[in-house]
Design a protein that fits this description.
Blueprint (H helix, E strand, L loop, with lengths): L3 E3 L11 H4 L18 H27 L1 H57 L5 H15 L8 E7 L9 E2 L11 H9 L3 E10 L5 E14 L4 E10 L1 H51 L14 H57 L6 H32 L7 E4 H19 L3 E5 L5 E4 L1 H18 L5 E7 L3 E8 L6 H4 L23 H11 L3 E7 L3 E9 L8 E2 L15 E2 L16
Parallel strand pairs: 1-4, 8-10
Antiparallel strand pairs: 2-3, 2-6, 4-5, 5-6, 7-9, 10-11, 11-13, 12-13, 14-15
Length: about 600
């Protein structure tokens, strides 16, 4: 028995002839110049679809960033899908390969046996004319047909030489020799060996089109003149392909179900872990907002439960400490307020006695005279400190009340300058108002604004080193700004960050000209906050400092910009308005001076 020779090696039973897939190259036959532009409505639909796709992608990306559960479930399903595709592809190839190899051996043995037998029949035949040979060919071809298996077998006889004794004979209607692979026909025409090749069957017995098949062929000689013909048998593998398709469908269905089950499991597992974490985050936000009584719900004895117990213990400790600190702060504020009130009466008595001694100092000897002057100055300073302490205690207790009315900021600035004029004359500093405004009306507490301006002006005079200072005034439809600019010693950035701290001095060794309490800028800051205003500071070592107060024209409105820049330009122009993000209530933009 002659072994079958493979013309092309293709283990896939459902593989089509490669030539069947050959077609024009991509873009072949297209007109030059590219596709025409889309019409207006189509372009609008494409734009809308693109916008929806971008919105969907942005929503998914945002959820990916913010949801640990979403990331875990999606990552699990993606990895599972990749694993399933890899395993499913491997199993599919293994099943198809094993099935094909098993059936190929069977088909090869059957085809070799039948072709060899038929070749012997033709060789031993005693036919001497065309009719007898035709009947012999028809009977032999019909004998090669087998319809009892799941892979039906048919035959076809094709002449090779130009002298045709018997025309092409087929056992299946609609089949022609052109369906046979060309390389298989050439191999059969070259010699007597048996060859095989995969093929596509146009129409099968059950009506399927383009079914996979496998063909075996050999060369035979027909009597009486031993004309060369090619005899082929081919097997219809559509039933085998249907079995493989069923297996693939089952694998895909099982994969989809498994993917959904794994996704549900991942969602449930991550939810059991993420939900307590989300609850802890929510409770933490409430604790940060001041709701100290909030606690996590604890159930079970696992790691998450221990986390909840530890979190609640931490929250309880924080609540106790914060409550204790709040009580201590209240006690401290009450103590300062009580002591300040209690000291007012004896201090008034001491001040009256000091004034008597101070008025009679001309009758004292030089030592007693100096002592009376020092006593009078220190009692005045003590009384100012006591008044500032009382004011600070009101702010701390939340008892400060804003008595707003329509006031002229320009007049308040002039009034503050007049109050500080004796100090300016004593120090030799010139105070100049730089403004194009004659009136700036705003809703404000005149007493508190006057105190802010007086503190800023006195502070600038004390640190101005007898150099001229300017007070800039500018306004906009929404705000009024006053900037106090000196050209004195200035401050470093670190010192500027503490400019509004209580009892803080830029230079502790520096003597105070006016004997201030050290609370002036702190009280000014509290007054500004009460007005929803901005109080800012700027400074540069050796170049001086500038304090900028920005007030809303109408109470209840929020500032968005300031009419002045910090520091203001020397020519007195208001400069471009600065947006809200450049401002802080007690911001020190660069070095500035403290009291």
């Amino acid at each position: 028995m002659t072994a079958a020779t493979a013309v092309r090696a293709d283990p896939a039973p459902g593989a089509a002839d490669p030539r069947a897939a050959d077609g024009p190259a991509a873009g072949e036959g297209q007109p030059e110049g590219g596709p025409s532009a889309a019409p207006g409505p189509q372009a609008a639909r494409l734009h809308a679809a693109s916008a929806r796709a971008r919105s969907l992608l942005q929503s998914v990306a945002q959820r990916w960033r913010r949801s640990l559960q979403f990331r875990t479930v999606v990552a699990t399903m993606l990895l599972t899908s990749v694993s399933f595709v890899a395993v499913g592809g491997f199993l599919s190839n293994q099943i198809a390969g094993a099935l094909y190899d098993q059936r190929f051996d069977q088909f090869s043995a059957e085809a070799t046996e039948e072709l060899t037998r038929t070749k012997a029949v033709f060789r031993e035949s005693s036919a001497t004319d065309r009719d007898t040979t035709s009947r012999l060919v028809l009977d032999s071809v019909e004998a090669l047909v087998s319809l009892d298996t799941d892979a039906p077998r048919h035959a076809i006889l094709v002449p090779i030489s130009g002298d045709v004794l018997v025309p092409t004979t087929v056992s299946q209607n609609g089949v022609t020799a052109s369906m046979l692979p060309q390389d298989l026909q050439e191999a059969v025409a070259d010699g007597p060996d048996i060859h095989w090749a995969p093929m596509q069957i146009p129409v099968t017995e059950d009506g399927a089109t383009d079914a996979p098949g496998i063909a075996f062929g050999t060369q035979v000689q027909l009597p009486p003149d031993q004309a060369s013909y090619a005899l082929y048998v081919y097997y219809d593998l559509s039933a085998m392909q249907s079995t493989l398709d069923d297996i693939h469908r089952v694998l895909w269905l099982a994969g989809v179900v498994l993917l959904l089950v794994i996704g549900a499991i991942a969602w449930y597992v991550t939810r059991s872990v993420v939900r307590p974490v989300s609850h802890a985050a929510s409770v933490s936000e409430k604790l940060a907002a001041g709701q100290l009584q909030e606690r996590m719900e604890v159930s079970g004895e696992d790691e998450v439960a221990r986390l909840g117990v530890s979190f609640n213990h931490m929250a309880g400790s924080l609540q106790d400490q914060i409550t204790q600190l709040a009580q201590l702060s209240q006690m401290q504020q009450r103590f300062v307020s009580d002591v300040s009130h209690e000291l007012r009466t004896p201090l008034t008595t001491v001040r009256m006695a000091a004034e008597v001694l101070y008025d009679a100092r001309a009758d004292f000897n030089p030592i007693n005279k100096r002592s009376a002057e020092i006593l009078f100055d220190q009692v005045e300073r003590f009384q100012a400190l006591l008044a500032d302490l009382l004011e600070i205690s009101r702010f701390d207790a939340g008892a400060a009340v804003l008595e707003a009315e329509s006031v002229d900021i320009v007049q308040l600035v002039q009034h503050a300058i007049e109050g500080a004029r004796p100090l300016a004359e004593r120090l030799g500093s010139d105070v100049t108002i730089v403004s194009q405004e004659t009136r700036c009306i705003a809703d404000a507490d005149a007493r508190r604004i006057d105190r802010i301006l007086r503190n800023l002006i006195v502070n600038a005079l004390e640190h101005g080193e007898a150099k001229p200072m300017e007070i800039h005034i500018a306004s906009s439809p929404e705000a009024v700004a006053v900037a106090v600019r000196d050209h004195g010693i200035g401050m470093t950035t670190l010192q500027a960050s503490r400019a509004f701290d209580r009892f803080w001095r830029a230079d502790p060794a520096r003597a105070r000209t006016t004997g201030g309490s050290g609370l002036g800028l702190s009280i000014a800051l509290e007054d500004a906050r009460l007005h929803n205003a901005w109080l800012e500071a700027w400074g540069m070592p050796g170049e001086g400092a500038c304090f900028l107060l920005t007030l809303p024209r109408t109470q209840g409105t929020e500032l968005t910009s300031s009419p002045l820049i910090l520091p203001p330009p020397p020519d007195g122009g208001p400069g471009p308005e600065r947006p809200a993000h450049d401002h802080q209530t007690e911001a020190a933009h660069g070095p500035s001076e403290g009291e």
